[in-house]
Every structure is written in C-alpha cells, then in structure tokens.
Amino acid sequence: MYEYLYGELTDISDRYIVIDVNGVGYLVNVANPYHFETDIHTKKKIYVHQSVTDSSMTLYGFEILDDKQLFEQLLNVSGIGSKSALAIMAGNDNTGLINAIKTENVSFLVKFPGIGKKTAQQIILDLKDKIDKNLQLDLNIRESNPIVGQNPKLDDALNALEALGFTHKSVEKIQSKLAALDESTTTDQYISNGLKMLTK
Question: How buried is 52 (Cβ within 10 angstroms: 0-12 exposed, 13-18 middle, 19+ buried)?
Fold first, then answer.
C-alpha cells in the first residue's frame, strides 16, 4: 500500500489531480482539486489512500496526513463510501465536522451528498468516542449554466461541487451568490464558499 506520492503536479480537473513520480503519472482523486491550483508544475507530497476492488484500483489524495486519517475513519463507518467521504472532506473544515460528531448534530451531517439520517447517526455512533484518540487533527478551518464562459473559475467550481455529489439544482441555487463574490476569487475559494452555503 502507498503512504504518499512525491512528484510534480501536472494536471488538475474537477475530480482529480495528476502527479508525475519519476515519469509515471498517477491519477489521484481529491476532495477539492482546485485547492492545488497554486502548486501546478511544482513538486508536492500527497498522502494517499489506495482502494482496490475486483475491477479497479483507485487512489485518494490528501495534503496532510491528518486528512487521510480522517477519510479512513469515515470509510470505516457503515454506509459511507469514498465519494461521500470526499464530499465531507471537501470543505477543509475539520472543526465543523468534529463538533458535529461530538455534539451529535445530525442536521449538519445530512446536508452532505449521500448522507441520510441513518448514516449520520452511524457516523456519530462510530466516531464520537474515537475521533480524538485516533486523530491529531488541525482544528483550524482552512480555508445548465447561464454564465458559462464569463467566469471560468466559477464554472470550474460549480462543476467540482456537482462532481462531489451535490445536485445540479442545489448548486444552481447558490450560483448567483458565488457570482457576486469579488472577481479575484480563486476556484478553490469559490468551492469553499459554495460548500459553506450548501451545508449551512
């Protein structure tokens, strides 16, 4: 199993990044690919979780080890798949997630794609007493399309939010609010703000 990859970040899409390690390009699924925009064509260490099935081998990547550990904790919860776990991780708001688990805040958790009430309760049941013991998390918050072509960064962010599993209708509802943000807003910032609006 891989622990991490170290190489040049060569490509970013709305679902994954590609990292070149000694001439081999690894496709790595990440929660928010545009978080890595400023790292394109530079060398980067990416912690990875490898998922192997009969039909595929998939890599999931994280900038810090704590995020990888949190992702793996979520995968251990019955009813949580990799896509749902990535969506939960996409906000880079470990504080909000941990507080929701500790305070048994089901309403916070069910706002993520693929998370129903039963699964949210299972997350709380499985992780409430484990999350502090097993994770040394950084608790700081890190921080049809009518306007396609006018703001490519916003377009990329909207596509990335849908790739995480949020419905087109829910993403469309926050589009005008995101469009009202300053023109200097990066794709990563659009995604972070969009996630806050979608899970509010």
Answer: exposed
How far is CA 188 from each of CA 25, 55, 81, 162, 193, rounded to the nearest angstrom? 23, 32, 24, 14, 9
3-state class (DSSP) for residue 74: helix
Q: What is the DSSP letter of 54?
A: S
- pTM over 0.85, yes/no: no
Contact call for residues 80 and 123 (beta carbons, < 8 A): yes
- Residue 39 has a CB neighbour count (10 Å cut-off) of 16
Task: Provide mean pLDDT across the span 43-72.
Answer: 91
- What residue type is assigned to position 2 of the chain? Y
**Element at 20 (helix H, strand E):** strand 16-21
How many residues comprise the chain? 200
Distance from the first to the final alpha carbon of the chain: 37
Q: Six-digit token pair at 165?
A: 């599993």
pLDDT at position 52 is 87
Q: pLDDT tens-digit profile of 173-199?
A: 899 899 888 878 999 899 989 998 998
Residue 3 corresponds to which tokens in the numbers above?
A: 């622990």
R_g of the chain, CA atoms, integer Å: 17
DSSP3 helix / strand / coil % (the chain, rounded to 5)? 45, 20, 35
